[in-house]
Amino acid sequence: MNKFKQFIHEFFVFGLKQAYACMFGGFLLAVMLVTKYWYPIEGLHRYDFIFLAAIAFQVFMLAFKLETWKEALVIIVFHLVATVMELFKTSDAIQSWHYPEEFIFGIANVPLFTGFMYSAVGSYLARVWRIFDFRYSNYPPKWTTVILVMAVYINFFTHHYWYDLRWLILAITFYLFLTTQIHFKVIKTHRKMPLLFGWFLVALFIWFAENIATYANIWLYPNQKEAWQMVPLAKLSSWYLLMLLSFVLVTLVNRIKQPLAKTVLQSPELEPLAESEPATR
């Protein structure tokens, strides 16, 4: 029974920490849903309000030290990378999706708040990394992961004109990360799971959030113009690749640390840590 109580307690703490890590993304989703049903501000478009609210929330998190400056840098990088992709995907020639409402703060067909939606993923990864003291075993050489996500990003554009290489990229991803384990600390003890499975869980969560966002009329796919319907599960492959891209971008500012237990690891870039080293930095 004591072990069962310990499990319940640890599971509860795990949920609280995840909610804390999702703070920015949860705020954006809440604003989207509330403003769908109630938006009384005249003279300010709803999309522009979401953009200003996202900036204000970021200032709030930094001011009260709920977010580090390093995590804020991750958000800026994601905003820039995502906006470039959005400009292409929503262009008149491509029209993978569109934003049906009016806005002032935007470029071409893209309202500026959209970058924050991708930044919410980067913010979550950077925060959850710190909160759970992520460590990795059998992590592949970092240069291979950088090349891999460059292929992911390029394929987001080129598959409209050439072959879609996502399944080849996914196959290479599974090959590189097949034995990689992510070690995370909920309270005192580090647990572990396959990193590939962890990415799938986050991609699934993003898919659920995407359904909420499209229901709230934030953006619409071509098959949702007449009436809203759930986003196809096939989109999970895109979100999985986005997770891979997001994760590797975060590794550029966060150090890959190996588990505290002394193990032989495959990548020379992993830095061994002593047992006495603080869990977080």
From TrEMBL:
Membrane-crossing residue ranges in chain numbering: 20-39, 45-64, 71-88, 103-122, 143-161, 167-184, 196-218, 238-256
Coiled coil, from the record: none
Residues making up the signal peptide according to the UniProt record: none
Record keywords, A-Z: Membrane, Transmembrane, Transmembrane helix
One Pfam entry name: DUF817
Protein name in the entry: DUF817 domain-containing protein
